[in-house]
Amino acid sequence: MGIIRAVKLAFDYIKYGEDDAGSEKVRALDQVDLDVEKGQFIAILGHNGSGKSTLAKHINALLVPTEGSMWVDGIDTSSEEELWHIRQKAGMVFQNPDNQIIGTVVEEDVGFGPENIGVPTPEIWRRVEDALDRVGMLAHRSKSPNKLSGGQKQRVAIAGVVAMRPECIVLDEPTAMLDPNGRKDVIQTVRELNEKEGVTAILITHYMEEVIFADRVIVMDQGRVVMQGTPREIFSRVEELKALRLDVPQVTELAYELKKAGVPLADGILTREELVEALCSLN
Amino acid sequence: MLKDITLGQYYPSDSILHKLDPRVKFIGTLVFIIALFLVRGPVGYAFATAVLAALILLSRVPVKFMLKGMKAILLILIVTMLFNMLLTPGEPLFSFWILTVTKEGLVTAVRMALRLIYLVIGSSIMTLTTTPNQLTDGMEALFSPLKKLHVPVHEIAMMMSIALRFIPILMEETDKIMKAQIARGADFESGNFIRRIKNMIPLLVPLFVSAFRRANDLAMAMEARCYHGGEGRTQMKPLIYAGRDRTAYFLIVLFLAGAVVLGILGL
Amino acid sequence: MLIELKDVSYLYSRDTVYEVRALDHVNLAVEEGRFIGVIGHTGSGKSTLIQHMNGLMKPTEGHVFFEGEDIWAEKYDLRKLRTSVGLVFQYPENQLFETDVLTDVMFGPKNKGLSETEARERAVSALKDVGVGEKHFKTSPFELSGGQKRRVAIAGVLAMDPKVLILDEPTAGLDPRGRDEILGRIQRLREERGITVILVSHSMEDVAEYADRLIVVNNGKIPYDGSPREVFSRYEELEGMGLAAPEITYVMHELRRRGFPVDVTADTVAEAKESILKELKGGRKRA
Prior knowledge:
The complex is a heterotrimer. Chain A is an alpha/beta fold.
């Protein structure tokens, strides 16, 4: 069984109408099946309101399913006694870097999680140093988070999760508020954690360039999983993606347009090297 | 600009006072304030002055930082002095128009002024040598006996440290929203009092909305990182007394004893 | 000339050890009807630059002119300037405050001194321009989706009927459809109304697609100023400034290096497609 598994998961929330005109149930997730192997890098795509954040919050037990079930490392997330255990196993990084840093000093923020789960003091220090080192922020350990750039703050947030020694890390649009350089650093950090430490990574993003490294891409729409496959498989279905209000990387789009115009290219070209190679072999 | 204001006026240095345990500094400050109200005569004040001077020297914080705090209380200082000088009955020193300054009045005024000034300097020594974080930790530790009376000491300390983290962010945000509204033709500067208050709405509503959103996000982020109150929590930087802290406590007790004696003798 | 900056410098924390020159002797002229892209890494001075254009920041040295008038001359009406030079800040939805969408958008025109009826007309037309339907006029702005909020906030500035619209990263944090929707609307405004647009963006793809002039800001200076094609031909220098060119530019240069005589200045998918197809056909003919 995979590290994260959802079976026929559904989630309803109550929307209160205007003027107390009564409330209605809205189905945010519907019939979601998911099976993520340990050590995989998964990307989740979908336009705003497609249910991807709601799904992410289920992995960390911030939300529990209305119907169906979600397991993290074999533990059912709806079992209350295991709540802190689940949250330690599946860490979460959110979109806004300012609203998830609690400490007034970088290292104290990274220590916040371990403090909460009762790690002994000397061990906290070891973990904090180790986590900051892995995200490349050790040099900034005694700074105020307010003095850091957006990308640096997100890396501190990742360190805060790493210090809890999780099996899996869920990132909910961690790069949406960053500039291109910050974005690159954050994605690089996540990829390294995934490749070197074998931490399972689940990345939610709107930037198509960020998902081409993923082992598997999941596309969501209206609370359902509508596409699933390798980046190459997903990005060869350009029309379908556009219908789902999504983009493809520019290189993929160029290749797709050329192919439409009769150039014999393969489907789902992802990188510029691939495209250049393919075109040169034609000439 | 608003974001230039930094809250908690910590002055980084590695003096002996900076290294002291925040609990010691907190209690020391409290004792110093009590002592200010115990002593009455010139010897007593000389004693307090000497101790204060020694502390300033030990802290290695430039005196001008200490005096910064005085600006805020200048008005209170002048008013208290005037009231005491003019309204204390006793032997008249000199008078003009309907106002009479008495000898007793002058003495009381000077005493009050000294108390006020020393009080401000004394407490700024604490805030200048202690990071806001250490201060909250220290207070949490000192007040932890109150937990037995169901006072949420840990939660209050956590609230204080979160406030410290978010005040600069909200300041910056105020600056941004203000500029955005000015760009939409808003006017925050002219008009009478009522008008001005009304003009603040385009600033205050977005600020509250944002503060609530941030609070919501933060609560979720804390939960996601397994925060569930103070129970079962360990500390990354627990407060542990060192030798110098014990020495400091000893000196504080000596100082208090001295102040009590001088107070009783009325010197 | 619509906006002109002459030898403008701006210093933060002047005369202290922390002194920072956010703008360093900048000269810039903005002609009417252009779509100007502004790129620069975070902290390059681009925010400071645009805030000088509508008088939110006062130059430490130098002068700023709007339609030939020095905006910092005595008795110059800065409030009026700000309605002519509309500035949409980053995450503008954070400035929404009224109880319903329409009233919020009316805030700007009312500050301009327009009557209730006129202000309403302006607001309605601005909301139409950004594609917010009438059914949302009476909703609270806080109940809208992220993309809708963003568009309402932009309408709030548009409703003042500005000659110049400056947008600081108007698509930050939106999904791809939201991004295209906003940029498309802005493009249309410029075509239909002749409104001058200044777009600050981190997306090289977006400025390549929409801008007809591109300004690069680095260390408070403007090292490059020209058509996107010209600017992106300096992609190696741009990388040194923490910037980049669109993916397409790299593809074209790489193809050229590999002996494929394509047009290296093509910086959009459409242009690249055209150039590659031409070469492929030509190549086949030659072969």
